Amino acid sequence: MRNYYSFSLASIIAIALAAPAFAQEQPVVAAVADREGVISYTPADFAAARPNTALDMIQRLPGFTFDGGEQVRGFAGAAGNVLIDGQRPTIKTDSLSDTLGRITISQVERIEVIRGSVPGIDMQGQTVVANVIRKKTDTFQQVFGARSFLFAKTGKTIPGWNYQATRRVGDHQFEFGINRGVSMDDSVGTGWRTTVDPATGNLDLYENARTEGDGFSHSIRGNYKGPQLGGTFSLNGLLSADEFKNEQRFIAPTVSDKNYVSRSANKRGELGVNYVTSLTPELEWETLGLFKLSNGTLDATGLVADLTGADPASSQLFQIEAEAGERIGRTVLRYKMSPELSFEGGGEIAYNYRDQQVALDLNGATIALDASDVLVEELRGEAFGQASWRPSKEWSLEAGIRVERSKIEQSGDIQKSRSFTYPKPRVLVSWSPNETDQLRLRIEREVGQLDFQQFASEVDLNSGQQSTGNSDLEPSKSWVYEAAYEKRFWEGAAAVLTLRHEDVSDVSDLYPRRVQVDTDNDGVLETVYVEGPGNIGKGTNDALLFTLTLPLAKLGLEGGELKVDTMWQNSEVTDPLTGEKRRFSEQRPEKINVNFRQDLPELNLTFGLGWFGGWRESYYQGATIENLKLRDFFNSFVEWKPDPGFTLRAELNNFDAYSFDIERRVYGGPRDVNPLAYIENERRNSQVLGLLSARWTFN
Description:
- By secondary structure, the chain is mainly β.
- It is globular and about 80 Å long.
- It has a single domain (2-242, 273-292, 326-355, 373-698), classed as TonB-dependent receptor, beta-barrel domain (Maltoporin, Chain A, Beta Barrel).
- The two termini are 51 Å apart.
């Protein structure tokens, strides 16, 4: 199927190059700042904060919460809530935040916040989007940045750097960049782990614990955008490689020494092309193609030494080797009948695959795993259409439907072929009784995506938990009902309250199940208990979200600003083992972020203090319930910008060092019919973490 359905970007480019025969004029960036439902901000509005990039401006927008999009297959479903010159970047591996972070403030003409819907603007399925409009002046600009994490307890540093160059000549823009990125697991540190007998409460084992996780990435990219063949043509390319290492060690003096190490390495390449042209003054055509390829490995080892000398040391090795690819073609027609009414329609076709092999060894002997060699391929097509109508300055309506048809084939250890068809209607209504208030109502059917990695088995050496691949997975489906009320007040203040209800079918969760297999090839089926991902039926989820942007000048603190971002949610589904109601696995019931920042323009300084309320989540496995909890913590920063070409920033995070707790309640077998065997508690105490960064801009 991979070769049969594979298509190249050449055909997409050929279609784009044929467009000039129909084109009349090059499209221009949508200018909607004078329309209802749009609020425009210029760099001058943020002068006191001295932002460096478009991302800095986005993060300061009143009442706007940045959404970088999802890492999912296809193009439409991966959209974030920020456009650049009225369009999405035609690349997926490079994050939206990174793209915005490379647009310097000197390149930004204005940012438009579009609320509800506006005819002629692709809202990307969002209720609110921001549109970054860049200047068209000739420029050549270079930016170099350097930064390093510093761990206070261990003294370890993780340095990174980046360089970018941007050249604009008329309407032609060229970009080039190289980067060494850094990453780390901020929940690591030193602590302890205990094992307790639930029947007696006796402490069976006490272990000292140490965990550490960090890595790096290297990337090179290039972009071009400009007028070609009667339209606007853009080309984006990216090559990247990354590595990450995680270590966990547990020592019980005179009893045992357990050491678990995992190393992952990935290489990725991506090429995207986009062409937009005006066929008539009212009709615009956009077509794009995208090609992605990646391969990666994971090597996880476990070494357990018996310090009593009673048993020999044991070793485990779990390995993953995978290759994945994606090819996307998409075309859209947009017809603007009038300033109040527009239509758009089109289609998308995508081919995706993941070829994965896994292996497990115990003391040098191979352990057989189900679904250890899996190739999953998907051919997916989607047709869509929508209309945007603003009958008056108070009201706007957006209605549309997408119909998705996909075929998934699995080969290797398991041979299976399935097809799915899902209609996905959407309606968004906005009412603005005045210039400061807006009510938004949304009804939409959302369909999740399958994670192809869940079709293969996986093993966690530390916990001993094995997840068996599930070839019968289906995407979860939800009817979403949402109401949001936005209130703008004072100068630059905004509050948004959102209520959301979701009726979910085929909830994707952990699904312990009993299956009939012939384990010894004697022709007789035996009942075997397996754990892994699966669909566990119908569920609901309710969420309350509140955001607040509050400038404090009216309270006597000129240049001060408070931002609050909160979410509370509660889900319910029937546990497939016990039959009891519980929350979805992995769901975090609440999120609370409070950030204060103070601009001191006379000193070229900005400083800030933030508080994050922590999180908790649970995983309901077949013989284990795992509860994770991260305690609240503080962060702070000071930024000095003596001139437009230089910025120095220092951050101090976790200065009230938080703890990360893991509780594992382990049963003697399936937890619906077996008693609790033991309780394992682990605590990791974080380190104070510093970050020092510098940025130089050369014009």
